[in-house]
Amino acid sequence: MAASFSTTLLPNYLQSKRVTKQNLILNPSSLSSNKTLNLFHALEYPNSLLKLSPSRHHVTIASAASSSTGIQPSEETISSLDSVKVFDLKGNGIPLSDLWKDRKAVVAFARHFGCVLCRKRADYLASKKDIMDASGVALVLIGPGSIDQAKAFAEQTKFQGEIYADPSHASYEAFNFVSGVLTTFTPNAGLKIIQLYMEGYRQDWKLSFEKDTVTRGGWKQGGTIVAGPGKSNISYIHKDKEAGDDPDIEDILKVCCT
């Protein structure tokens, strides 16, 4: 089903609507909000493509919480991080704040391990890893899912940073990242996912349809922080206001590497 959709349905849709990569960049209005939402839903959950009805996504997009940078989290949030455990690829449980206790780290939180937008974010951040390495800064990615899902993501993306799984989603709750259908299916996210398909990125459908991802991780947005050294030293926070809301990489580098 995944291969059929990515190689046949998507190109046919784009051809029928005369949508090109250039038009999407220069003229996002070439896709209406409704059509974009429907297509984005199909890209994320293709098995439900035939179940969509025009009225199902005739919604008004609510404004989500805006990104925040340089804002210190509350003491309650910081104190809760010691009790949040993430797991490395060997299955070792590690308190979240230990990831930056003795070093500075850029920590990205993915929507879920199958997400095509998250695969782009991994590349986006890894493209500056040489600068981070030169400054002694670790690059870390956390995903809401199982250790096996994290292993699959590592194998598929060849991500050069550290990867951790958060099966309980506790780290996402601690940082109060936004969640919900209206922050997932947005026109901007839809346009971005189409562009990523044109660039050759692909969703992992198996990971995307695993029960926990669909019921929980599929609706939770992530974010990016710069933290450490020191458990309470969080100097940068970007909370994604919608799916695919990547932080400005130059802002991250200014905080972590200068």
From TrEMBL:
Q: Sorted alphabetically, which InterPro entries does this protein's record hold?
A: PXL2A/B/C (IPR032801), Thioredoxin-like_sf (IPR036249)
Q: Name one Pfam family in it.
A: AhpC-TSA_2
SUPFAM superfamilies (alphabetical):
Thioredoxin-like (SSF52833)
| Tree of life domain | Eukaryota
Signal peptide, first to last residue: none
Q: Which GO terms describe its cellular component?
A: chloroplast
Q: What is this protein called?
A: Thioredoxin-like protein AAED1, chloroplastic
Source organism:
Acacia crassicarpa
Print the organism lineage.
Eukaryota, Viridiplantae, Streptophyta, Embryophyta, Tracheophyta
